[in-house]
Amino acid sequence: NRLRISRRGDEEIVSQLHPLVRFVAQSAEQGGTVLYPAIAARIGRDRLAVELACGDYVVAVMRWTFEALRTSEQLWYGAASLSMAGDVLANEQAEQLITAVASNGSAWPAATATHNCAEVAATIGRTVLNQGIEAFGEHVRRVKAQNDDLAEAQLRSLDAHLANQRVKYEQLRARFLEKGNLGLARVQEGHIDRLVARVEREKLRISQRRELRASFDDVSVGIVHVE
Fold it and tell me: How far is the C-alpha of 29 from the C-alpha of 22, rounded, in Å?
């Protein structure tokens, strides 16, 4: 899951954002091979890295995906207290709680006897999932602004590169014409034409990927008893 580029020409590093991995994951999800769980777990306060009161908490994990000039994914964590009128935890607290449960929690079979599953599901949707959707919308706006800034910077860089290279080739062309070397002068004209074509292709690529495609999906939801 570390993003890096190989220095070897005969080696390709496959990360979580590699097209092959994304294709397999998407195919597995669409085919029902991967089913993300609804969990009921319990954990002792002494196993937490965050100070939380004892009681029951609803939790949710969402995956946000952004495809534009840069492709990125990130997990969002949410949690809210059932024991304290649905108070929503800060994102850092929610992440610490959920990661601790994933590492050190245990199953809580008695949850279905203690809570009404339909009511818990409604609470999850009303609190943490709703918070996650709102946070996703805010993050989309930030990512879009960053993507627009990146696109403008890349377009300016292309224009500057084209201008500089055109001057160089035109100066060479003029020099060859002065010497009566029409063949090499035409070579410079070819360089200019190919350069313009490459820049236009790159501008088209940037324009096509300037539109941000953002999506989210639920990774897991559940209830946690802190004791």
Answer: 11
pLDDT at 160: 94
Cα–Cα nearest to 209, from 115, 90, 45, 70: 70
Alpha carbons 148 and 150: distance in angstroms, whole number = 5
Q: Is the pLDDT of residue 31 over 80?
A: no
DSSP secondary structure letter of residue 84: T
Note the maximum CA span of the chain: 95
Q: How far apart (Å, rounded) are the C-alpha atoms in residues 99 and 224?
A: 12
> What does the pLDDT read at residue 3?
59
Radius of gyration (C-alpha) of the chain in whole angstroms: 27
Contact 206, 154 (CB under 8 A): yes
* Helices assigned H by DSSP within 66-181: 91-104, 111-114, 117-124, 130-178
Strand, coil or helix: 117: helix
Instruction: Give the tens place of pLDDT for each residue, 3-23.
Output: 566 677 788 888 777 788 888
Contact 56, 83 (CB under 8 A): yes
User: What per-residue confidence (pLDDT) applies to 83?
Assistant: 74
pLDDT tens digits along 72-85: 889 999 999 987 66
Counting other chains too, the contacts that 204-212 makes at CB distance below 8 Å and 24 or more residues apart are 206/69, 206/151, 206/154, 206/155, 206/158, 207/151, 209/68, 209/69, 210/68, 210/69, 210/147, 210/148, 210/151, 211/68, 212/66, 212/67, 212/68, 212/140, 212/143, 212/144, 212/147
